[in-house]
Design brief:
The complex is a heterodimer of chains A (about 80) and B (about 400). Chain A is mainly alpha-helical and about 80 residues long. Chain A has a domain of about 30 residues. Helix content of chain A is about 60%, strand content about 0%. Chain A has 2 helices and no strands. With about 400 residues, chain B is mainly alpha-helical. In chain B, helix 12 crosses helix 19 and helix 15 packs antiparallel against helix 16. Chain B is globular, with a radius of gyration of 23 Å. The chains are: A mainly alpha (about 80), B mainly alpha (about 400). At the A-B interface, helix 1 of A face helix 7, helix 8, helix 9, helix 14 and helix 20 of B.
Chain lengths: ~80, ~400
């Protein structure tokens, strides 16, 4: 009986060392992988096309019209007919 | 020649064809035990997903002449039991567990791996105790794994090392898993101070998707290379987790974490129940196993909490030792217990995610512990149990000689 208990103590000793070694290896693996592959915050949301309230798009179109026609685009006016 | 049959002869023949004619005292006792298991599952809510089919399997196996025992070749449950015998069901359950498990908290705080390792001391203290109570080394190893609080691993290892103890060990493992909220808190309070219980831990950092994907692959390579005997369990656990994290196998992930694990649970639990025949279960050993199982859970909890205390000291008070108790697997119930006990002393302390780290580390730790046992005592061991005992005996002589010399 004593021999079996002694054997079980040796098994305990060996196994606990193996468990700590295996999980220790995993610990270092995670630390290294975390250094190599750090979490990056997601890129900020892209601005909607045309910029805020579409003002940037309006400016771009205005500048294109100016280049094409050679004059400043005027205000849109509605002339009543009749 | 025409056969004749008398009224009395016919009645006797009919009675002999019923189960009543073969019903013995042991079977009546086992039927009562199965009804007790069904009561605990349905009325008390003790792990109903497992105890209910185990109880029903036990009931069917003990109804005579129905051929529903695990050893009744040709009966339905005999074929279900082949899934246990050939180690199919437990790894498939692990596939589902992997698909359900988020290793994020563990990856964010890898130090918690050590808590999962420390809790395994319960397994080995129980092994020594079981040997002291007269069990063989193989049987003691199977009993000790109850302390891992991991049903599939307990069934897997028991089937390999001591199949004759499968019924009592499975019932003890699952019963005590459902009793984790009752068993653990007194031990946690006993081993920690109020100041330690109030420690608030830093918020976990986010983990990259790449790390989440590489982790299961790396664990499989490392663990299976170091401990091939644990390959089936760890491989399936990590495959399930890879389904979850890779993001390209949604259907496989969904199936693994729901339908597959539920289906396999039915087969596994019925198989375990069918192994609970009167001659296997109604023995003094069963009582010893039930007591040792309780002891195993307590010792594992204490091991985790004590290492938690040590980490608390080493890190300058940054670790709450209560999360150490979650190192006993029993995912996620043990982590919930850490959270509950922590909030009793500080209602604004949220330990759940921190406790999930040691909780999932416990699953890996228990599988590694089972791998160690198989490497030492299993059929695939390089050493036979006889050799192992001989070598251990020589090692013991060596250690003894050191003490005597010292």
């Amino acid at each position: 009986m004593f021999d079996l208990i002694w054997a079980s103590l040796i098994v305990t000793f060996i196994s606990m060392i193996v468990i700590f070694i295996v999980l220790g290896v995993l610990y270092f693996l995670i630390v290294v992988l975390d250094r190599l592959l750090p979490h990056r915050a997601p890129a900020p949301e892209q601005k909607p096309a045309g910029g805020q309230n579409g003002r940037e798009l309006t400016a771009v179109i205005g500048s294109a019209i100016q280049t094409y026609t050679g004059r400043k685009p005027g205000k849109l006016t509605i002339t009543p007919r009749g | 020649m025409e056969e004749t049959i008398s009224l009395s002869g016919g009645l006797v023949q009919l009675f002999n064809a019923t189960g009543l004619s073969a019903l013995g005292g042991g079977q009546v006792m086992m039927i009562l035990i199965s009804l007790g298991l069904l009561y605990l599952a349905i009325e008390k809510g003790f792990e109903p997903l497992l105890l209910l089919p185990i109880g029903f399997g036990c009931l069917m196996a003990n109804l005579p002449l129905a051929m529903m025992g695990s050893g009744d070749e040709g009966g339905l449950l005999y074929y279900f039991y082949q899934g246990v015998r050939h180690e199919i069901w437990p790894p498939l359950i692990f596939l589902g567990v992997g698909a359900l498990t988020d290793f994020g908290p563990l990856l964010a705080n890898p130090m918690t791996l050590l808590l999962g390792a420390a809790a395994q001391i319960g397994v080995y203290i129980t092994l020594v105790s079981a040997v002291a109570l007269g069990f063989s080394l193989k049987q003691a190893a199977a009993i000790g794994i109850i302390g891992g609080a991991d049903g599939p691993t307990a069934i897997f290892l028991t089937n390999k090392l001591a199949p004759e103890l499968l019924g009592p060990i499975a019932v003890a493992a699952y019963s005590y898993m459902s009793l984790v909220p009752i068993i653990q808190p007194p031990i946690m309070r006993w081993l920690t101070t109020e100041k330690e219980r109030k420690v608030r831990m830093e918020q976990l950092k986010p983990v990259s998707r790449e790390l989440r994907i590489i982790f299961p692959i790396a664990v499989t390579i490392v663990c299976v290379l170091l401990l091939p005997a644990a390959g089936a369990l760890i491989g399936m656990l990590m495959l399930g987790n890879l389904f979850r994290e890779c993001g390209v196998t949604k259907r496989l992930h969904d199936t693994s974490e729901t339908h597959l694990i539920n289906t396999v649970t039915i087969f596994l639990a019925l198989s375990v129940g069918s192994s609970m025949s009167a001659d296997n279960f109604l023995r003094l050993e069963t009582l010893k196993i039930i007591c040792l199982g309780l002891f195993a859970f307590g010792a594992a909890t204490a091991g985790g909490v004590l290492l938690g205390k040590l980490l608390n000291v080493v890190t300058g008070g940054k670790v709450n030792p209560l999360i150490g108790s979650a190192g006993v697997s029993a995912v996620p119930m043990a982590a919930r217990v850490s959270q509950k006990v922590g909030q009793e002393y500080d209602p604004h302390n949220y330990l759940l995610m921190h406790a999930m780290g040691p909780n999932v580390a416990g699953v890996i730790g228990t599988a590694v512990a089972a791998g160690c046992m198989l490497a030492l005592f299993g059929e695939s061991a390089v050493m036979t149990p006889g050799h192992a005992e001989l070598m251990i005996g020589k090692g013991a002589d060596f250690v003894r000689s050191i003490f005597i010399w010292g």
